[in-house]
Design a protein that fits this description.
Elements (H helix, E strand, L loop, with lengths): L1 E5 L4 H12 L4 E5 L7 H10 L13 H6 L8 H10 L8 E3 L4 E3 L3 H4 L5 H31 L1
Parallel strand pairs: 1-2
Antiparallel strand pairs: 1-3, 3-4
């Protein structure tokens, strides 16, 4: 199951949620502003990040600047506590399943998280749509050339 971590006033979060709904892809959504991540949640997410915490820390957030902390000096446990206390430090959306993670909205990268059955169905659908459009374009061109 795909999980999406969202925030209150996040445009990328709304786009992500809308994209999954538009493509009828089941997901579990969690607003981390209302339901902050626990240490265990954060450990699970970080295990999916090959570069560790850096990928999920929002260095553009107001709280990041206000804290004025050297995150490289913190222990793993201190980072977990800090991120669970200050949900705004966590980038959003975070989209993940049991094996992969995607931080931020990127339609092409989101597709890598989709189950194989959905990827296959989507690929076949897009092929049919594109083939139909190409055929219609060719017919339209032929009509204009003859008249």
């Amino acid at each position: 199951m795909i999980t999406i971590l969202l925030g209150n006033s996040c445009t990328s979060c709304r786009k992500t949620k809308a994209w999954f709904q538009e493509h009828d892809i089941p997901f579990a959504a969690r607003n981390i502003d209302h339901e902050p991540l626990s240490k265990e949640d954060l450990k699970q997410i970080i295990t999916l990040c090959p570069s560790g915490f850096d990928k999920i820390i929002s260095k553009k957030s107001k709280i990041y600047r206000a804290l004025n902390i050297d995150f490289d000096e913190l222990s793993f446990n201190q980072l977990l506590v800090l991120l669970s206390q200050y949900p705004k430090l966590v980038k959003r959306p975070i989209i993940y399943d049991e094996k992969k993670i995607q931080v931020g909205f990127n339609e092409e990268e989101i597709r890598t998280l989709l189950p194989k059955e959905i990827k296959h169905t989507t690929r076949n659908y897009l092929y049919k749509v594109n083939t139909t459009m190409l055929y219609e374009d060719i017919l339209a061109m032929q009509k204009t050339e003859f008249f």
